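Study this chain:
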Amino acid sequence: MDYLPIFTQLQQQPVLVVGGGQVAYRKIQLLLAAGAQVTVLAKRISADVQALQGEQLRCIEAAFGEHSIAHYKLIIAATDKPAVNAEIFQAANAANIWVNAVDDPEHGNFIFPAIVDRSPIVVAISSGGNAPVLARRLRERIEQLLPQSVSLLGQFAARCRERVKAALPSISERRDFWERWFAGPAQQLLASGKTKETEQLFEQQLQQFVPNQGEVWLVGAGPGDPELLTIKAMQCMQQADVIVHDGLVSADVLALARRDAERISVAKQAGFHSLPQDEINALIVRLAQAGKRVCRLKGGDPFIYGRGGEECEALVAAGIRYSVVPGVTAAAGCAAYAGIPLTHRDYAQTVQLVTGHCRANGDEPDWPSLAKARQTLVVYMGLINSATLSAQLIAHGRSSDTPVAIIENGTRPEQRSITGTLAQLPQLIAEHQVQSPALIIIGEVVALAPNLHWFQTFVAEPSVSQAA
């Protein structure tokens, strides 16, 4: 993050604008709208700027250096002279005053963002000065998304905030009430001018408010790319009081969760469990029983090798309300991003999803079924047992030349796809030092990857056959 976005209170605060032309005029309008007490300092001040003079603005026709800056909170350098901007910047720094130099970021320590104003709701967009046209385009899109009635809704909430605070002493209860309120018809009522009806509805909901009991959302976070999150997954992540997440949930996905939500990692890795499954079950039950809204965030899909079923059973036994939000499973996401169709009428009509972990009871997988030709086999968590997997499939009839792909960090910018043959599988993993998270795909469809890959380059061994 190049700049930390900050909203500052400028009501009745003294701000100096150096420059009296059109650039200064635009900044002055923003400052006046924010309630600042503005002083304009320039040798020549345009008629437009002079026309703004009043209780909030005064003009001084003088050069910078002829006027004391000691009492100002902010300084705006709106000149087209880098030397003057440098002088202002040096003087402001010496006086511990923040300065913005318009179109000259080298001589400033804060910038003005593009603004979408639905006061009291204000949205700021910035590229740090690196892509102003992009910031403007994003602003245009947000302007279209936010109706003017958002302003009325914000103003209504501001008027009622103290009433809610007096009626509901708990922060979590107040948050719960406002979330329900904003999700209701209030915005439509206000937009239609029905202020009295809105007030009546508000009083009714406040008097009848019953706090939510604890609940759990089992949410699939997908394989890594945050843009693969579902809308419902995002909603749960934003509403949760606690995020209980696996290690496979990417940092980019976690960054989209509510910032003040508690985060608890229950990361698991082969050979190491930071928290056994029984304790994870007990944890989410305990949090829900304490009245928390828990987002149990899992990589991929909760019900595909995510042990979501076990957690649901624990929640049912404890009488906890819960819901499940499916996610893009790794098989679908990683294969698509590697250019590997899991089914293709010329190569595979069947897909099997299996885990590479050995079963606790010692039962062997159904190797004859897994070894059938003209099907796609997707192996989750198969790195450690890849040698056994390769040997058993070949021993039960799968050709040693069957194409395979190992996809590391699938759907993420650092994704790496390594292709070879089934016989080469353990060697490929060792030579390329593949690390978890990684997925193994076995089948004729893998040979399509050299032609269909679109997301990133891949490493192909020379012996891999190409699909016609």
In short: The radius of gyration is 30 Å. Residues 390 and 422 are 6 Å apart (CA to CA). The longest helix spans residues 149-167.
